[in-house]
Design brief:
Blueprint: E1 5-9, H1 16-26, E2 35-40, H2 45-51, E3 56-59, H3 76-82, E4 86-89, H4 92-97, H5 102-114, E5 118-123, H6 127-131, H7 135-146, H8 152-156, E6 159-162, H9 176-194, H10 196-201, E7 203-207, H11 215-219, E8 226-229, H12 236-245
Parallel strand pairs: 1-2, 1-8, 2-3, 3-4, 4-5, 5-6, 6-7, 7-8
Length: about 250
Amino acid sequence: MRKPIIVGNWKMNKTCAETVAFIEAIEPVLHDGATFGVGAPFTALKDATATAKNLVIAAENCHYKDNGAYTGEVSVPMLQELGVTHVIIGHSERRQMFNENDEELNLKVKRLIEAEMTPIFCIGETEAQYDAGETENVIRTQLAAGLKDLCPKCVAKMVIAYEPIWAIGTGKSATKEIAQNCCHIVRDQIRVMYGDEAADSVRVQYGGSVKPENIKEYMACEDIDGALIGGASLKVDSFTKIIEAVK
């Protein structure tokens, strides 16, 4: 059985004080029915890990080198020192705004696995690609390149987040049928690349305008093991409702 994993992606939101207040409010409503976490900005990670007891704390990015002349970047050892256990990699905003490519993301995934941290690896198609019927090809291509040359047991421990770009922050959301089909394609591509055990073990999230009103229908799908949540993870009341919905 794959344990569900629900992670909020805060993006460039929340100060240190706001982070502490949020975590203190959320901790009492957490339960064992799923793994719950938040991806916090770099500046808030130290306070987040110090405050969290059961909430998983993820970084929103990392560099694949441990040190060097990379102004503004943060390394895996730096995150480890803070107690961070998960890192969101390849979010569409990073791919589009900061030109991250599959080769670079593959290096990041490998470095995280080497450090025994959990990558939350994001993939997904644009609206133009969706309209052109290219969704499956995009999913398989991004996985083939981003997860190249890994060991099956390592892939089995990862989290893969399918996020259609046309549904991120737009208010649009994929139907449960679309989300299930795409997450099934994710699992099938892992099966093709790394075999049955990895495919049956890897946790696949859906992301894209997930909120309290639709979380249950996504979680009822066979190949959806959780959600990567944007706006609804920024407020205690909406995130609490999502947590309670997956009991």
